[in-house]
Design goal:
Order of helices and strands: HEEEEHEEHEHE
Oligomer: single chain
Structural class: alpha+beta
CATH class: Mainly Beta
Strand content: 35-45%
Distance between the termini: 22 Å
Shape: globular
Helix content: 10-25%
Number of domains: 1
Largest sheet: 8 strands, antiparallel
Radius of gyration: 16 Å
Number of helices: 4
Number of strands: 8
Low-confidence stretches: none
CATH architecture: Roll
Length: 150
């Protein structure tokens, strides 16, 4: 399967879910929280409070994993990668005004993209896995994408 077809499937799968689980680490302790991510091509965005616990974890350890489970077929989408907070106001405005998220960010950040509390997290995937419970039970291997190493 081509990268393009794989990412089309990933986007279609993610669009069926509202919520995903984001794993961060506090020292050696994993922490998992519910988030509402948005895909933009091969990048994943998460809006969150810049002073949130997950933001503090990522500032110390950028390794994250994002997990979606979707529907009756229990489709699993896992994104493993590196997260960072984008502080560039031009980029924050681009994401805010570009309606990358499928909800109104002003519900949580009424002062707009300039708000000091508006944390825009970018997850750059290193590995993405797509499978389902029926596929796993039948012995089918998951579809896996890996970022090219340069």
């Amino acid at each position: 399967m081509s990268d393009s077809n794989f990412w089309d499937k990933v986007h279609a799968t993610a669009a069926k879910a509202t919520w995903a689980y984001l794993a961060t680490a506090k020292g050696s302790q994993p922490k998992v929280r519910v988030v509402h991510p948005a895909f933009e091509g091969e990048r994943v965005w998460v809006a969150t409070g810049r002073a949130s616990a997950k933001a503090g974890h990522i500032d110390k350890n950028p390794s994250v994993e994002l997990f979606y489970q979707i529907g009756a077929d229990m489709v699993h989408l896992t994104v493993t990668g590196q997260a960072k907070f984008v502080e560039d106001l031009t980029e924050k405005k681009r994401i805010w005004n570009g309606k990358v998220f499928d909800y109104d960010l002003s519900q949580f950040f009424p002062n707009g993209p300039e708000s000091k509390d508006f944390g825009l997290m970018l997850i750059t995937p290193e590995r993405v896995e797509l499978t389902s419970l029926p596929e796993m039970m039948s012995g089918k291997k998951p579809e896996v994408w890996r970022a090219s190493r340069k």
